[in-house]
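Annex B. Sample input.
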Amino acid sequence: MFRGKQLGIVFALIILSGGRLMVEAAEVPWSQPKTYVSNSRFLSRFIDQDFTVDGNLAKPAWRVASWVEVRRDAFKRTEFPQSATEVASLWTQNYVYFAFRCDYTTLNLFENKDNQTDFWTLWDRDVVEIFLNPQPDHMSHYYEFEVAPNNLWIDLEIDLNKKPFADPKWNSGFEHATHIDEKKNVWTCELRIPVTALNGTKSLEADTEWRMNIFRADGEGDDTKRRFLSWSKVVNNSDSFHAPWSFGVIQFVK
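Annex B, continued. Sample output.
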């Protein structure tokens, strides 16, 4: 989430991590694109019955989903086959579901933490992330969901026009579950996000289009050694994921 930023004006210093200055600010030092620059498209398929998430992707529902593989660096052309990640989405009128199937070499986790409450700085270890914007006309306002392999989590409301731009007090009520297969070196994750939590949206309809990006942080060491992947390439002059003009389209189809 909060990777290093090279800001013209620094509002607040937070921490030095891996030799990179981490800051909390709502300004970007260059001219932000005013329109979306990504043509990436992601299909979320309709299902007629909700289900409880448990981290098991063998459910019949996921067999009808459209799966996308993510293995490229978020900012460069580099690929990370050792971190190959399959992602899919389903929807009902009341929920949006996401599934992740993540190859790994080793796991980099926060241990002995309470998964009953959201965990700040979760992004400093292994994690999958979804940035979701249900109102694409308001590019700078969106929601962030993160889950780690051991089911630690955080959800945030993001507004880049505010200082600070991340609101950790926001609570979506989203559900999440994970499973680690140590024999196959794969971890899986399911999320169920209530539509009503996303800025008062009451229900989803077929052919609705939102904006979205999907990320994964993987690997040990500081940020110079870890791997940062994204579904839609991040166009930015820093190494921050918070570049909403780079969000692709998620279309909810029947």
